UniProtKB/TrEMBL annotation:
Entry keyword annotation includes Membrane: no
GO molecular function, one term: beta-galactosidase activity
Xref: Gene3D superfamilies: 3.40.50.880, Glycosidases, Golgi alpha-mannosidase II
Protein name: Beta-galactosidase
Location of the Glycoside hydrolase family 42 N-terminal domain: 9-378
Keyword tRNA-binding: no
Binding site residues for substrate: R106, N144, W308
Catalytic residues as annotated in Swiss-Prot or TrEMBL: E145 (proton donor), E300 (nucleophile)
UniProt binding sites for Zn(2+): C110, C153, C155
Known EC number: 3.2.1.23
Length: 651
């Protein structure tokens, strides 16, 4: 049985060697079994072009190995050395306003730069050659957070690469003109080299151009990853990953990364000031599981506060454990932190660490050591699936497209609706999977589409087939409006869902800022209203006020063996969203855990049930089994202390 991987980023180059011995002793004490090394050490191991100094890295790899701690070997390409920027000024990142960004930080490089790619290939080759067969190296950590600060570059090399990418995608410039609808404003191109990168421009830039630019920018990072992966494969058989930022890096479409990594790993930091930040954590974990199509690992999270939010709120007692075990509950087979020992110098000295500035006589250290100990008892969950019979649709392309300029309302925000529906399900203790609109949905009793603005013809057919075959689909407004080029589907809105929903929209009626309206069911809506015309569906509730008073607001359409539901306004928790979802879940036969107190997260993973109490009260949760951490057997009611976690193994 494989243990849960446990550890963090380790940056020994920031410390004198005598500290390394203490580090390794404490790592063993805490049960650390994997550390990420060399994520940012390019300037140290290659002090001048072609000159290498391996002394520190060699010594630390041997020390870790001798102590049974595995190495997740980094490639340091997200922080190129100063000499490279000086020798090749053309690698510097150019932003949309045409400013060339200075050095002194990390990431400020153009992802399309040939000189940068060549330097990456060279240093990665040297590292892989030196450590590729070392038994300590268990995993490769390629780059760091692709797209963190350089998703897009607007230099000449990038523009040229974009033209090449378009030529490959469309073959013929007329196909591009057709796909992009360039007859509009006569924005026709006669050759690929006439296409410009969408840098700062007058308003109304062709949205299809913007979407392809986003796809291209994503793909340039994938290209760099693949190149590094191939170089490593020449020297090593160890698996490789790169740390994603799901879902907080809007510029990366992680669906387009499918199949690139051997292990999906994710970095997640609480948005500390959000009162419901534990729900956002769960959403990130569920979405990461969808990208991985199974188990995955946390590559970075924090023991307590970060240093880059407006107010860096420290974790409260027990929160480190709750956060960590919530990730494990939702599919994580590894829990790593940024970072092992708090840095004294540099930009991140106020960031928490496994070993804080205060040392071992601290709550953080005690919690870290206790967590490492607990994880050893949870090896049985490694590889196990998470059970869900509800799916929420997620698509980065809808996110991108919905938030381009000149939409019917600035209040149309992709994550706003997804999070509203996700949170309502979370509060009902319903575990969900995320799924792409073109994925096989037949395993789900209920599918929720909170914000599917873009739906391709294939997705439209898929959703219709899902309902006809007995599925239940809940759709929120402004879904199914356009195809993958941001072109409106033919006929009335919502073209991709008209037949499935049994209705059409005569006109959108976005609301004023902070305006709300009521429904005759007692529900309330925000943001949106529209003139719904029924064509097969029935009205479950009607608008009682607002621009569409008297017209359908919530509808239901029985189609084939299934049912499609529609909400024509923004419902929220406490104003109708819970009721809509409860009605759909009842109709779909979705079973919800009964008798679980509010604020308690309940997730089944394989033969284990995780009970996570986010409240300040001791609670009891119905259930039976054996506490996997302390061996207590329960039959009927399981006590979970205020802020505590119980992992229950099936008896
Ligand atoms: C991540 C990054 C780490 C560290 C961390 C701090 O974005 O990968 O290197 O900077 O943030 O929270």
């Amino acid at each position: 049985m494989q243990d849960i991987r446990f550890g963090g980023d380790y940056n020994p180059e920031q410390w004198p060697e005598e500290i390394w011995l203490e580090d390794v002793r404490l790592m063993r004490e805490a049960g650390v079994n994997l550390v990420s090394l060399g994520v940012f050490n390019w300037g140290i191991i290659e002090p001048a072009p072609g000159e290498y100094d391996w002394s520190g890295l060699d010594a630390i790899v041997e020390l870790l190995h001798a102590n049974g701690i595995g190495v997740n070997m980094g490639t340091p390409t997200s922080s190129p050395p100063a000499w490279l920027r000086k020798a090749h000024p053309e690698i510097r990142l150019v932003d949309a306003e045409g400013r060339t960004l200075a050095g002194g930080s990390r990431h400020g490089v153009c992802p399309s730069s040939p000189a940068y790619a060549e330097a990456c290939a060279s240093i990665v080759d040297k590292i892989a050659e030196r450590y590729g067969k070392h038994p300590a190296v268990k995993l490769w950590h390629i780059h760091n957070e692709y797209g963190w600060a350089n998703v897009e570059c607007y230099c000449e090399a990038s523009a040229t690469a974009f033209q090449g990418w378009l030529a490959e995608k469309y073959g013929d410039v007329d196909r591009l003109n057709e796909a992009w609808g360039t007859a509009f404003w006569g924005l026709v191109y006669r050759s690929f080299d006439q296409v410009e990168a969408p840098a700062a421009a007058p308003p109304g830039v062709n949205p299809a151009l913007r979407l392809d630019w986003k796809r291209f920018s994503n793909d340039e990072h994938v290209r760099n990853y693949r190149m590094q992966r191939e170089v490593i494969a020449r020297h090593s058989e160890a698996p490789a990953t790169t740390n994603f930022m799901i879902p907080n890096c809007e510029g990366m479409d992680y669906r387009r990364w499918a199949g690139t990594v051997d292990v999906v790993s994710n970095n997640h930091y609480l948005i500390a000031e959000r009162p419901d930040h534990q729900i956002e954590l769960s959403m990130s974990a569920d979405l990461t599981r969808a990208v991985a199509n199974g188990p995955w690992m946390v590559m970075e999270h924090s023991t307590s506060a970060v240093n880059w939010q407006p107010r860096n709120i420290a974790k409260t007692t027990g929160e480190l454990r709750r956060n960590s075990l919530a990730h494990v509950a939702r599919g994580a087979d590894g829990l790593m932190f940024f970072q092992w020992r708090a840095s004294r110098a540099g930009a991140e000295k106020f960031h928490s660490a496994m070993l804080p500035h205060g040392g071992t006589d601290t709550e953080v250290w005690r919690d870290v050591a206790a967590l490492g100990n607990d994880l050893k008892k949870l090896s049985a969950v490694v590889g196990a699936d998470v059970a869900a019979d509800v799916a929420v649709l997620w698509d980065w392309e809808s996110w991108w497209a919905l938030e381009l300029e000149w939409r019917p309302s600035v209040d149309l925000k992709y994550r706003e609706r997804v999070e509203a529906y996700y949170a309502a399900l979370w509060r009902e203790h319903v575990t969900v999977d995320f799924a792409h609109p073109e994925a096989d949905l037949s395993g789900y009793r209920l599918v929720v589409a909170p914000s599917s603005y873009v739906l391709t013809d294939a997705a439209s057919k898929n959703l219709r087939g899902y309902v006809e075959n007995g599925g239940h689909l809940v759709v929120s407004y402004f879904s199914g409006i356009v195809d993958e080029h941001d072109t409106v589907h033919p006929g009335a809105h919502p073209g991709a869902l008209r037949e499935t929903l049994g209705l059409w929209i005569e006109e959108f009626h976005p609301l004023h800022e902070r305006e709300s309206l009521s429904l005759d069911s007692g529900a309330a809506g925000r943001i949106w209203s529209e003139h719904v015309r029924l064509d097969g569906a029935e009205a479950v509730a009607r608008f009682a006020s607002g621009p569409d008073a008297g017209r359908p607001a919530l509808t239901r359409h029985d189609l084939g063996r299934g049912t499609a539901w529609y909400a024509a306004t923004a419902l929220d928790a406490g104003t109708g969203l819970d009721e809509l979802l409860a009605t759909a879940m009842d109709a779909a036969g979705v079973e919800r855990p009964q008798g679980v107190p509010d604020g308690v997260e309940v997730v089944r993973r394989g033969a284990h049930r995780f009970l996570i109490n986010h409240t300040g009260q001791d609670v009891q949760v119905p259930g039976a089994g054996v506490d996997a951490l302390d061996g207590t057997a329960y039959d009927g009611r399981v006590p979970v202390r205020a802020g505590g976690v119980v992992v229950l193994a099936d008896a």
